[in-house]
Amino acid sequence: MGTLLSYLGRPDEGVAWLDDARRIDRFHPPWHWRHLGFVLYFARRYEDAIAAFNRSPEKPYWVHAYLAACHAQLGRRSLARDAAEAVLRAKPDFSLATFATKEPFRNTPDLAHKLDGLRRAELPE
């Protein structure tokens, strides 16, 4: 539900849902942190998103992409570059054009925000 609310342009509500889920189930699945980081990015809470992503025991390429975007949004070029390199190691054919179509955002500004962070991280178009 938290992720869905983010796709609908309501990331703050999504964060609340994910926080409630974690409180209810203290043995929440490890993927919880990845989803929370995703929603926090769209809530523009980049520091919190980085912390959530870093708690995830596994980091698929898309997590590194969002980490790169978070660091880029915070002006941390070196850390953004490191995360972007991790994306390309995990998925050498990564492109913004393909990645942009992977998630069903209802609001164009949310998609633009996603792409802005990834471009600032200098990931390939």
Structural class: mainly alpha
Model regions low in confidence, pLDDT < 50 over at least 5 residues: none
Give the amount of beta strand, in percent: under 5%
The separation of the N and C termini measures 30 Å
For the record, what CATH class applies? Mainly Alpha
Shape from CA axes? globular
Percent of residues in helices: 55-70%
Q: If helices are DSSP runs of H or I spanning 4 or more residues, what is the number of helices?
A: 8
Report the strand count: 0
CATH superfamily: Tetratricopeptide repeat domain
**Overall pLDDT metric:** 94
In total, how many domains does the architecture comprise?
1
Write the layout of secondary structure elements.
Blueprint: H1 2-7, H2 11-24, H3 31-42, H4 46-55, H5 61-73, H6 77-90, H7 96-100, H8 108-120
Helix pairs in contact: 2-3, 3-4, 3-5, 4-5, 5-6, 5-8
Structural write-up:
The N and C termini lie far apart (about 30 Å). The chain has a single domain, classed as Serine Threonine Protein Phosphatase 5, Tetratricopeptide repeat, CATH 1.25.40.10. The model has no long low-confidence stretch (mean pLDDT about 95). About 30% of the residues are buried. With about 120 residues, the protein is mostly helical. It is built from 8 helices and no strands. The protein has helices spanning about 1-5, 10-25, 30-40, 45-55, 60-75, 75-90, 95-100, 110-120.
